[in-house]
Design brief:
Chain lengths: 246, 90, 201
């Protein structure tokens, strides 16, 4: 961001202390941690932060997590999903308590971001915990009073895995369950495919801004289908969560 | 583990890049020295499950940049990037 | 000084009896996959291994020719520079001694090249006298592509980045030529027992 004089501002990003302010259990496998970071200067919807934990013997582990809060919230919150074989995620999901200390680097990310002034329509496609940065975008959209249209397509294994379910519920959110649907479910119960994207998304003629986030295979499959539907690659932004580390 | 799971994108290393270049780098457009393909760094392919981080061209899979955190230093090899185009505003 | 995160610790197996772990290493029971790039897909009828460079005559083996060479089943401990170690791993392959048997060599170093472009380097004497294999079997089954199949180099006395996956060429050279990780700051030799992780260690 330029200062008033037009000179460029280079902010050196480095590790800073972060303290857990609040722990919110979202699902049996996901927790949101609201963090206190002194002199936090805000973030943009879609950005993420690197989190580093240091054990008593000096061992360090670091992971990246999308920021779940909106810029208007004024604080960083991360939502972590537990990977069963993980080293960091089980700690953050099940162990972390108010007052616990870690380090944060960020916010980072200038490509997979959406600002309300960018406008819409906004077409958001999430695989599992890929919903986190998209939730930040939707929350920002609401708090900024944006009139951009937005539609979210969320792929989840089962109802217990849907993070922010109540918050995201509404006509513009479509969920598809890939493993177990709730009893009496009349909605989608299969992997995201071209027909679903065509039915749920905006047509290419409306030039939606498309954000796709989730595991690599999910993101790459959806991106290919979105291109096949006629959307231009310049309108598509992707963020892959690896299975590396957890 | 599927090979696909090891493949990330430039977003995954935004923090490391910001620390090295003191700028947000995922919007920088990098040109492959091998095949001339241009991409935002955020879209480039990243392999981060290794002794270092490797950023590869989506066009030809050639190495664009490589990073290793060696003790208190970061070593950056950029011979695979013919040029970077970025906005100087942070 | 980083703040300590209460209650956080490294996930690791109980260390084994005796002195089998080099300094700074931790035991793992899974087999982590580390990679600098995509897994190459090499059909076996196109695969070949060659010994080239400062030798009297280059040699080349097709997959079938490699399979016909005398096999060994070494059981070795392996140590990755990223700190995990795996003990008693079982492999099947051809000793590098077999490949070099009768060959006149005029260089003291080797550049190891892989499908996909990866390279590493080591002294020739670290590949001979029973210290190295071209391995195509792991744990009783064909070596999986993510672990280096169809065949990888196996040099267990050095950090495992020297055991190049998807190996295709051993080039004998007169002067040492640092490879992919070595040119990025990793140690030129890489002895885990002297903890030679980085250049200058």
């Amino acid at each position: 961001m330029s200062s008033a004089t037009g000179a460029t501002e280079r902010r050196i990003v480095g590790w800073r202390p972060a303290t857990v302010r609040e722990v919110i259990r979202q699902t049996p496998s996901a927790t949101t941690l609201i963090l206190d970071v002194p002199a936090w200067r805000g973030h943009r919807a879609g950005q993420h932060a690197d989190i580093r934990l240091t054990a008593e013997d000096g061992y360090r582990a670091q992971r990246s997590y999308s920021i779940a809060s909106a810029p208007e919230d004024g604080y960083p919150a991360i939502t972590v999903e537990r990977l069963d074989d993980g080293e960091v995620s089980p700690y953050l999901v099940d162990e972390a308590r108010r007052g616990d200390e870690m380090e944060i680097r960020g916010p980072v990310g200038g490509w997979f971001v959406w600002d309300a002034r960018d406008g819409g329509p906004l077409m958001l496609v999430a695989g599992g915990s890929g919903v986190v940065p998209l939730r930040s975008m939707l929350r920002h959209r609401a708090l900024a009073g944006s009139d951009a249209q937005a539609r979210l397509l969320l792929s989840a294994r089962a109802p217990g895995n849907v993070i922010y379910r109540d918050e995201l519920a509404g006509a513009d959110t479509t969920i598809t369950y890939t493993r177990a649907a709730p009893g009496g479910w009349t909605g989608y119960a299969r992997r995201v495919d071209r027909d679903m994207l065509a039915a749920v998304g905006f047509p290419p003629a409306e030039r939606p801004r498309i954000y796709i986030c989730g595991p690599t295979a999910f993101v790459e499959g959806v991106a290919a289908e979105v291109v096949a539907l006629g959307h231009h690659t310049d309108r598509i932004r992707t963020e892959r969560f690896g299975a590396t580390g957890g | 583990m599927d090979e696909t799971d090891l493949r990330l994108d430039g977003n995954a290393v935004a923090g490391l890049l910001a620390e090295v270049f003191a700028l947000e780098m995922t919007t920088a457009v990098v040109r492959c020295a091998g095949c001339g393909h241009d991409d935002p760094v955020g879209a480039a392919t990243v392999y981060a499950n290794a002794p270092g981080v490797v950023l590869r061209c989506r066009g030809c899979a050639g190495v664009l940049m490589r990073f290793a955190e060696i003790r208190d230093r970061v070593v950056v090899d950029m011979r695979g990037a013919a040029r970077l185009e970025l906005r100087a505003t942070g | 000084m980083s703040p300590i995160t209460r209650g956080f610790r490294r996930r690791q197996e109980e260390p084994p009896e005796g002195n089998r772990l080099p300094p700074g290493q931790y035991l793992t029971r899974d087999f982590p996959v580390l990679s600098a790039g995509p897994t190459p897909d090499i059909p076996l009828d196109e695969w070949e291994l060659s010994v080239t460079g400062a030798v009297d005559a280059p040699r080349r083996w097709s997959w079938d020719e490699l399979q016909a060479l005398p096999k060994e089943q070494p059981t070795v401990d392996i140590h990755c520079v990223t700190s995990w170690s795996k003990l008693d791993t079982g492999w099947e392959g051809v000793s590098v001694d077999t490949l070099l048997d009768g060959l006149d060599v005029f260089g003291a170093y080797v550049v190891v090249r892989s499908y996909g472009g990866y390279t590493t380097n080591l002294p020739l004497e670290d590949m001979t006298d029973g210290k190295a294999w071209i391995a195509y079997g792991y744990d009783g089954a064909p070596l999986e592509p993510e672990h280096g199949g169809p065949a990888r180099l196996l040099v267990p006395h050095l950090y495992f980045w020297k055991s190049a996956k998807w190996v295709t060429e051993l080039e004998i050279v007169e002067t040492d030529e640092p490879g992919f990780w070595e040119t990025l700051g990793y140690h030129d030799y890489g002895d885990p027992w002297r903890e030679q992780r980085y250049w200058g260690d």
